[in-house]
Amino acid sequence: MGTAGTKYTGLMMKVYLSLFFTISVCLSSFQTYAENLTLPSDQEITIEEYGKSTAKNHILWMHAERGISGELQNTILAVSKQSDIQILLPDWLDSYFIEPTRSSLEKIPQQDYEDLIAHYAKLYNKTDDKLYIVATSRAASLVLNSVHHLQTQNIKSFAGIIFISPYLQKQSPEIGKSIEYQAITSHSNLPVYIFQSERSPRYIPLPLLASELEKGGSPVFVHRLLNTSGGFHMRDKSDLTDEDLKAREIFPNQIANALAMLKLSDPASLKPLAKYEKNIRKRSSQRLQQVEIETPTLKLKDLDGKPHNLSDYKGKTVLVSFWASWCRPCLEEIPSLVKLKEKNKDNLEILAVDVGEEKATIEKFTGAMNINFPLLQDLDSSTTKDWKVYVYPSNYIVDKTGKLRYASKGALDWQDAEIEAILEALY
């Protein structure tokens, strides 16, 4: 299976890019150029167009919250050469002069988003042309809401959706709670093909997402990209592993195969939806929070094969930390955990649970960190699921009686005075 940039923010870079592609037109039947589309709101959106203008199949590629990178443009150019397709890439962030952040897409008016999709959907509705949409990460919600609303207006040119690491949760779930998905997730009637990288927090709950999408009535195809980092198709090469680079090389062909699968599937009947929700990202607290949930079981082996059972640690305060080597905040937090253990070696036990990785991978990233606590392997991610971990790192404090007392989502500074006071009260 498959195995994740630098953003062009200046006009000159786009001019150079345009010149390059103009030359490319002379050398092949593929065209790549840009145009401005004026929406009913009078907002102009720059649209990059790739592939054959005479194609009967069109992809509207909706970028993620981090915007358009040179690497993403290269990926899309390669995809456009795979079959008889044209790809349209709106540059939302540059058009609105928005900086790329996790919440950047929330600043795009939903109506503008829908109007742009409507422009192409109505255009192809007059012909036999088919429109597919590719949506990455948080763009998935905007796409589903827009498409569903347009379908209620008898627009039938939509043929299917390809998701790349989609984010369709209502919010990041509270500690110990299961994921809840936005209502639109179970109301989409279009065939869906999902690409999901393994080295991502969205990998473990993937079956839950697929099940929710299937409630719309159409097929949902799931393509797990093993040993692959999230965003491999749009990140700078220096930030990728060898597996990621191999995955990027074959990804265009996989997109073509996904389109072929969607072409064989018909939409289901459209389910009505009472209200279209706008997903506003709420920042998760990265402080220790008091919790009142039952302590899940934890029985895992460390890197030397020694078994560890959380219930055997009664009489001691235990910090359970879920992490992964592909999680940068996790690696940044580990030295702080090492200092914490060194200072409280007689009062505190730390169990660091790696999610789904082999011993060699773990040792590659931790070998020089002088770790002074057990590194446990949750190879099948079953313990991670039992603890309902959806954010990395996630930390849990269990008191001497075995009761779960505090928890946090995200990396912490374990030398913070407030945190030290909480722990000292439990010793």
Describe the secondary-structure layout.
Elements: H1 11-27, E1 31-38, E2 44-51, E3 57-62, H2 70-80, E4 85-91, H3 92-96, H4 110-125, E5 130-136, H5 139-151, E6 158-164, E7 192-199, H6 206-214, E8 220-229, H7 242-263, E9 289-290, E10 299-302, E11 307-309, E12 317-323, H8 328-343, E13 348-355, H9 359-366, E14 375-378, H10 382-386, E15 394-398, E16 404-409, H11 417-424
Parallel strand pairs: 3-4, 3-5, 5-6, 6-7, 7-8, 12-13, 13-14
Antiparallel strand pairs: 1-2, 2-4, 9-16, 10-11, 10-14, 12-15, 15-16
Helix pairs in contact: 2-7, 4-5
Any key phrases for this structure?
alpha/beta, Rossmann fold, Glutaredoxin, 8-stranded mixed beta sheet, 16 strands, disordered N terminus
